Amino acid sequence: MSAAIVQWASLTTVLLLAIQYGTVRGCDVVKDLKVTDITANKASLTWTADAPCIFLDVALMYEVDLRQTKGKIWTNSSAIVKPEFTLTGLLPNEAYTVSVMPHCDSHPGPTDSCYRSEQRTPVVSFTTKAK
Predict the structure, then answer these.
(1) Any idea where the Fibronectin type-III domain is (predicted)?
(2) What dihedral do alpha carbons 104, 109, 111, 116 form, nearest 10°?
(3) Domains of the chain
(4) What does pTM read for this prediction?
(5) Are 64 and 79 spatial neighbours (Cβ–Cβ below 8 Å)?
(6) What is the pLDDT of residues 70-117, one digit of tens each?
């Protein structure tokens, strides 16, 4: 089945369900991003959302974006289904910046209802421990 047909079918389903059950919520802002358990090469992340993007009991996914604070290139991990994630492969004694963004479908991108900068958590900075 082509992507266009799947997208059209998904949109049609959402519109029909919205008519039947009322307004379909967009993604809510992810907030309270915390970095804990920082070691020389990993760190744990947790975050919350007041009312996560849930549509007919289907939860959203998240994207975690990370970069070295002195760098300009962001790397991301997507399709995270719980409000927690462990960053691994970090360099010792290095400053990092991290942010989280929600996605309400399995193919995050510019057309995603959550793909807006105001939906992203404020960036949080942390430094890994020295070896």
Answers:
(1) 29-131
(2) 80
(3) 25-127 (2.60.40.10)
(4) 0.67
(5) no
(6) 999 999 888 788 889 999 999 999 999 999 887 765 444 544 455 554
